[in-house]
Specification:
- Helix 2 runs antiparallel to helix 8 and helix 4 runs parallel beside helix 7.
- The chain has one domain.
- The chain has 13 helices and no strands.
- The longest helix is centred in the middle third of the chain and has 29 residues.
- The chain is an all-alpha fold.
- It is globular.
- Helices cover 72% and strands 0% of the residues.
Length: 323
């Protein structure tokens, strides 16, 4: 049972890592809320169709906790996308991935034993994040920026910032800001796993004869609904032009949505089959995938000090996941 949870969690990490890299490319051309919005709409439609076909038994507590997990996850996702918009994927992904330590600490507080590898991993991950945060700002734009020029949009009908070029222009200090946003995303992502465990446990309806896939489907549907509410609130900060479903936005957003839904279902199934202290870290290995793609495919390069911090954070995540 635990072995199945491990495999599912690792597969989810691979999916999340590929999604991270694709998202990093999209948010440098489009507003973060627009990517999150269309990706989540895609996920919600897919899950709603699946739910209509399987007609799983619904649990009000499970739906409520799932929506709460989705809301927390959406806050983390928006912070993560904004960090990707301002910084390098190879830096942002490991910092955000350091949220893996939170489920471990919650598990320890709940009575789980903390092995030396996990303890060392927590220390390395936290130290790596602090090193990245303390590193001097490189004061340069991301490696592959394609920043949309500012354009005034007439006929605004909702509250928006004075400047709304959809994607903010690159400026000095963005590197440091991206690390702070990634750290905020890490806290939200860690909390997401904690709340998700509660949702999975409460989604089971006694005597309903639910299959594990049905439980995962109910929770994933609630997660998407909760996330979409938060994203819609964030989207009100932009004009309609920034949210318009252009082909260059909808195609990758749809792909991100499909990959994320698959990963969410895998994570929910993994949490149902293994302890949070094991499954949570393994499902958070996506920074390793993202950094490998960013360095080997996108050719991102880091200076020595932030590079050491990234390696420390990645090493810590791996130790926690295998501890």
């Amino acid at each position: 049972m635990i072995a199945a949870g491990v495999v599912l969690a690792v597969l989810a990490s691979v999916a999340y890592g590929l999604s991270d890299v694709l998202s990093g490319a999209v948010v440098r051309r489009h507003a973060t809320a627009s990517l999150a919005l269309w990706a989540q709409v895609t996920g919600l439609v897919v899950l709603a169709v699946a739910a209509a076909v399987r007609q799983p038994a619904l649990s009000a507590p499970g739906l409520a906790w799932g929506a709460g997990a989705g809301a927390v996850g959406a806050l983390g996702l928006l912070a993560f996308y904004t960090a990707l918009q301002r910084g390098r994927t190879s830096v942002v992904a490991p910092v955000a991935g350091a949220g893996v330590v939170l489920p471990v600490l919650v598990g320890v507080l709940g009575g789980d034993a903390l092995g030396w590898r996990s303890g060392l991993g927590v220390a390395l991950a936290v130290t790596g994040v602090l090193v990245v945060a303390a590193a001097p700002d490189e004061d340069e734009a991301p490696a592959d920026p394609v920043v949309r020029a500012a354009r005034p949009v007439p006929g605004r009908t909702q509250p928006v910032p004075v400047y709304d070029g959809c994607v903010p222009p690159a400026r000095a200090g963005d590197g440091r800001a991206s690390v702070a946003l990634a750290a905020l995303a890490a806290l939200a992502f860690g909390l997401f796993f904690v709340v998700l465990e509660q949702a999975t446990g409460r989604a089971v309806v006694p005597g309903a004869g639910q299959q594990p896939l049905d439980v995962a489907l109910v929770v994933a549907l609630a997660v998407q609904a909760g996330a979409l509410v938060v994203t819609l609130l964030a989207a009100t900060r932009h004009t309609r032009a920034c949210l318009r479903p252009e082909r260059s936005l909808v195609v990758p957003a749809t792909l991100v949505g499909l990959v994320d839904v698959g990963a969410d279902v895998l994570v929910t199934l993994a949490v149902d089959r293994g302890p949070l202290a094991v499954v949570g870290p393994l499902a958070s290995l996506d920074p390793v995938v993202a950094v490998l793609v960013a360095t080997l495919v996108l050719r991102e390069r880091l200076r020595l000090l932030p590079g050491l911090g990234v390696l420390g954070a990645l090493g810590g995540i791996v130790l926690v996941a295998t501890g």
